[in-house]
Amino acid sequence: MVRELTRRSFLGQGAMVGCSLAASPLMTSASFAAAPGQNRLIVIILRGGMDGLDILRPWGSAHLTTLRPSLKSAASDAMMLNEYYGLHPRLAALKPMWTSGELAFVQSVSTPYRDKRSHFDGQDILEAGTSGSVAGVQKDGWLNRMLSGLPGADATTAYSVGLGDMLLAQGPAEIRSWSPQVDVVLSQQGYALMQHMYQDDPALAKSLDQAVKLAGSDGDQALFEDASDGMMAAMDIQMGDAVQAGNKAHVKIADFVANQLAGDARIACFSLGGWDTHRNQKNALNRPAQQLADTLTTLMAGLGAAWKTTTVMCMTEFGRTAAENGSKGTDHGTGGMMILAGGAVRGRKIYGQFNGLDEAALYKRRDLMPTDDVRRWAAWVIRSSFGLEASFLERRVFPGLDLGADPGVLL
Amino acid sequence: MSFDSILAQTRFGFGPSPLVQGPESAGAMIATLKGADRGAEMFAIPHYHENMAQLAQFAHLTKQSRALRRDGKETVEVDRQMRVLNRTMAARRRKWIRQVLMRATWSEDALRERLGLFWFDHFAARGKRRDYAWMGAPYVETAIRPFISGLFEDLLISAVTHPMMLHFLDQSVSLGPNSRLAKNQRVKGKKRGLNENLAREILELHTLGVNGPYSQQDVRQLAELLTGLVGDNVKGTQFQAGRAEPGAEAILGVTYGGSRRDGLRDIEGALRDLARHPSTAKHLARKLATHFVSDRPSDDLVTEIEWAYRESGGDLSKMYLAILTHPDAWRVDVVNTRRPIEFVGAAFRALAVPPESFISWSAKQTRTIIETPMRLMGQDWLRPPGPQGWPEADDYWLTPQGVAARLQWALAAPMHLVEDLPDPRDLMQTALGGRASERTVQAVNAAQNRQEGVALVLMAPQFQKR
């Protein structure tokens, strides 16, 4: 991939520039790319409504255990971040990230969506980035609109990764989409025959070549010498893989994203599901929490040196009720939480205004009170990462948003 | 350039089958379409109301669960019953997907199947709640399929007043700002009001088209006229006068309703007028031409279809006949890309997948070999991405991801579909007739085994297009 991009960029830049720079061992392929700077942004949509109060537990509040009798487990010292807050036990792998100042939380934030608490509407509004209560009118996502204002962005800058379209990435700006769950498994000869056949159809030929390249860059072999048993096995496994190995899909996605962003790409988005914990939350939250931890550690490992200039921003459509319900779970709420990770983050901090869990301080005496617009934090992350104009962010990316003062979440 | 059976099957069906005869003329295709629905007889999908017992059970369990949780009581038993119901309906949903593919495989009336897909796309709706999410296929079966060869206005009324659409586009929560109910609620301090979602999409997507001669004022007035129209999976479509905005509404200069409102009839009157509008004729004509012939149809083709509609008072079968008798329909260069459901359907048909084994596939097989691969190809079928349906543009589908997913499926799925893979050269002859290019023939002949040979046929540029 890297070699390929160097060659393409070399040709694109013209021989004069190419000759002098290409000879220099200091020039990496990324230096050639049109990509806007070194900063990287990964947006993860946590679908289903993440319970921020269980991910980042406010043990300091006397109300926590009374509101949630069946969710309480003794606050373990190892998971405490400070005297007030402790992490969910399945996020143990993130503790070192916190300690090294690369993990932060933004408490009590939400989209402007209120009261109906539907996943469908809530996610649409989060991804459309609009302030209105009806997202139906907005058919593109804020990440796409942001890209359209990013100087130097091209078709290799941004990726939407994983199964299914993300509204977040939809719109006129070109964002590549790829799901590492797709695996091309082809014999060398089969590939050659397809290329032969596709000389009739350049568009198909181009897509096939890119597909083989992308499939080869996500950890599995794409091309086999011959149609051997190994290839047959790989293929049959993969038919089932897309579904059966769903448990590991997030790691493949994180690996793929890290690979692309360590190279030419600068922006990626994908989703993690499973946060809708209406029942037996004590067990139900383990899986998504573990997946989130795996995802972030995989990104960190895969990005290598590029982790230093990376911000991972995790957002959810809404939080959950402050009190547990009759099935030992929590229902759809309002105030939620944003999670920030990466070397570019001013971490080891809990941002945002937390009004506490006293019934009178809750939204509608029920949900965590949202005290700020989550889009404002996203906008400042974007502004700090890519230097976009405030007016562009307030008018185009998040129409109607007031950016307010810089919360200073990035270094 | 005139009627050609292979082209007819390719453009207007799922391609040729080794066992099912192709049509003999354009007239025969229309006559078959207007005849009995043999596909529905052979491979039944129950109508919406035939699932009433399950829908009622869902409503009942939801209510129970809410009440128990409100009182802080255990919901274990209700949860268990809900899981059983969910499993039952998930299995049915997958069975219906298999029936749709069997119709594509075995129908002598493939045009009807393609039109079913086309009009489901035009009236795209998806469930936002679990009970609706189960019901995509019955929605098509009940609200769309019986109306695809009659008057467009009947199809329009049927689709947009169906509970699925009223749910999807939020009509069921819309409330006239001056309705009785709104006034009562204001007294109680609640603020709810008009929802323009359905009205806007009727004008923009279903009838006049985005460039049609309507304004925001027309959207608003239509939304007000639609108040009172609500749908429910158990009670069906209803008109609740208490939700309706009082007074007359003017849409494109015509006044509906008035002091004595006859709810549904006023709404139907407005929908019929919108269906008969010349802009609707133009919008539908271009959409049909784009879908069945080319992303860039000739003006002449569009005009012919448009006039067939206008002269017949909106008879859809007259539009289809106009396409089938136009020279553009018989051009030999086939350029539109098959969507995933059409690609999979065409492969099923070319392979003549036998119903005996396929019908009884498990939910897991269906998910692994049909549903997930189609999502990877970009079409989570029965779950359209929005009210505008899936994009028509060819390049939307043939992205690296889309091509990779098709290739993966073409290599791995066929051996699960038929007992013995066919000789790739025979399959090529069946599926493409004389349409295979020289390079395709060379590649298929050079394949090192049946599996790759079959995949090459299915991935041939000529197979990817219709």
Descriptors for this entry?
heterodimer, A: 411 residues, alpha/beta, Alkaline Phosphatase, subunit A, 9-stranded mixed beta sheet, 13 strands, 38% helix, 14% strand, disordered N terminus, B: 466 residues, mainly alpha, two-stranded antiparallel sheet, TAT_signal (chain A), Secreted protein (chain A)
Protein topology:
The complex is a heterodimer of chains A (411) and B (466).
Chain A: H1 2-13, H2 15-22, H3 29-32, E1 40-46, H4 52-55, E2 56-58, H5 63-67, E3 85-87, H6 95-99, E4 103-110, H7 119-128, H8 142-148, E5 158-161, E6 176-178, E7 186-187, H9 188-197, H10 202-216, E8 223-224, H11 229-244, H12 246-262, E9 267-272, H13 281-284, H14 286-303, E10 310-316, E11 336-341, E12 349-351, E13 372-373, H15 374-386, H16 390-397
Parallel strand pairs in A: 1-9, 1-10, 4-12, 4-13, 5-6, 5-9, 7-8
Antiparallel strand pairs in A: 2-3, 4-11, 10-11
Chain B: H1 5-12, H2 26-34, H3 38-42, H4 52-70, H5 76-106, H6 110-122, H7 130-133, H8 136-144, H9 152-160, H10 163-168, H11 180-187, H12 197-206, H13 216-226, E1 229-232, E2 236-239, E3 247-251, E4 254-258, H14 263-276, H15 278-292, H16 299-311, H17 316-324, H18 340-351, H19 355-359, H20 363-377, H21 394-397, H22 400-412, H23 414-417, H24 424-432, H25 438-446, H26 450-459, H27 461-464
Helix pairs in contact in B: 2-17, 4-5, 5-18, 9-14, 12-13, 15-16, 16-17, 20-22, 22-26, 24-26, 25-26
